[in-house]
Amino acid sequence: MTMFSLNLTLTLQKKSEQICEDLKKAKYKIINLGAREINKSPLPPFSTSSLQQEANTKLGFSVKQTMFIAQKLYEGIKLGDKK
Hints:
This protein has 83 residues and is mainly alpha-helical. 58% of the residues lie in helices and 0% in strands. The protein has a domain at 46-77.
């Protein structure tokens, strides 16, 4: 590293540190805050293989565990006696 590049590096470092300090001390004011609706389409449903892959990747489930849980969800849960 030459003396010029070392000097330039130190100068840039000092300037960047000064800018950071100035930004930390500065007061900020929000001038405009807008809101808008965004239409986002839902993700497509899982195929059997993509469900198994995601369950394994994100939750560490085996194929057997995944399919057992999927079957239980498909069958539903009992909510009690119907009157």
